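Quick one from the shared queue. A colleague (R.T.) flagged non-specific serine/threonine protein kinase as missing a structural entry in our internal table.

Convert sequence to structure tokens.
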Amino acid sequence: MGEVFAGRYELVDPIGRGGVGAVWRAWDHRRRRYVAAKVLQQSDAHTLLRFVREQALRIDHPHVLAPASWAADDDKVLFTMDLVSGGSLAHVIGDYGPLPPRYVCALLDQLLSGLAAVHAEGVVHRDIKPANILMEATGTRRPHLRLSDFGISMRKGEPRLTETNYVVGTPGYFAPEQVEGAEPDFPADLFAVGLVALYLLEGQKPDTKALVDFFTAHGTPGAPQGIPEPLWQVLAGLIQPDPRSRFRTATGARKALAAALELLPETGPDDEPVEIFDQLGPLPPGFGADGPAQPPAPGLLGPAATGTDTGTRTTTPGVFAPAPPDPTGTPHTDVPAPPAPPAPGPHTPPPPPPGGTDPHAPPPTPAPSPSPTPVPGSFPVPPPPAQPPTPPPHPARPAAPPPLPFPPDHEPTPPPSPPAPGTRYPYPPEHPQQHALPVPYTAEYTAPFPVPLPRTPHPPRRPQGPPAKVVVPVLILALICFTIGFWALAEA
């Protein structure tokens, strides 16, 4: 099992690393789902301030991956976001190389859509690059990208956290005005979008410095090989060195891209489809699709928990155990064995002499028919009666035993004695000299019901504070002093 952070997020495995922290796949125990958790690695004030600024960003857009929640635990802090499993655009280019123009247009439209939502919040991203554009694992269906990593983003007008003559971002995706130290603005993000589009179309990182020098010296060049002219005109409007010559908004660039898309040729049947794979890989041992595997609780694997009968039962001394079933199918009834005949005592009459009869003895009674020796767990069955008119005498059939008043796995307990007249039951006795009635057997002990005690009236409380005859003169005197002081200040 992984480390549980702040009692909610269980870190599973690392899936990435950024400039100020590592990104983990984590299990959210509250929402019962996997999330991406960015854990702060450094604890200096400058890094923590950037971290707080990033987690405070809340943008709800299908193509923006913004922080969703955050947590702190001692000297550690993290924030979470949706888990995106398709990797980044860098993974796609590594798998396929240059992408078809229509596929690039679909990705570029989604990127500009998300960037428009970010700019609408007054936020400049300042770090748009292929590694910060993540992909959902959609397979061969329509791609779905999400703009992520707002670690160095800032709102327009906020104070900068960098020193003078120090540029923050990724080399190769800087706008020319950023290198010169200008204030971050929306056109700088659009310049980076144009470089990302060239990267997708050519399959390699463009040479930003050579492009800027050529545009500055010769103007807009012709379309490079493999890039359709309508699409190139849109890209040229994004990577102009002069920010005043670029598209001013992401929405304007989307409109120009939609017009250029209508002029592009359709995708041929021989073109290889682009498939976005799951780049995260399988979960480590101990984790499944429904979260971490919980070990079974002790005692839940026996026959009682699984509903399986083993066919045997252990009899504990002093605990009633039923007799085993009779193979003949006859139901068992537990009846005690008949009592033994009494031993001869001093007042017992002597037996009659052998060969004679006692004149004072009553007429002889026929002896009862012999009965089999009782077997534990069974009772004697009398022979069937003879046909009338002269039925032979037979012993009386023993009465059926009463039903068991207790479960078969508990000891029998004597029945409670009847309550005495006038006794309050089951409440405790009213006087200590009386004896409480015995409480019948229950599965759990139940405490006696408490008897409320009579309440003693409390004397009325004395009001707090000085009396009114003292407070009023003091307040009037304070008001007079305040008025005199205010008049003195006004005259000075």
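Residues 89-158+168-261 form a domain with the Transferase(Phosphotransferase); domain 1 fold (CATH 1.10.510.10).
The two ends are 76 Å apart (CA to CA).
Added to the table.
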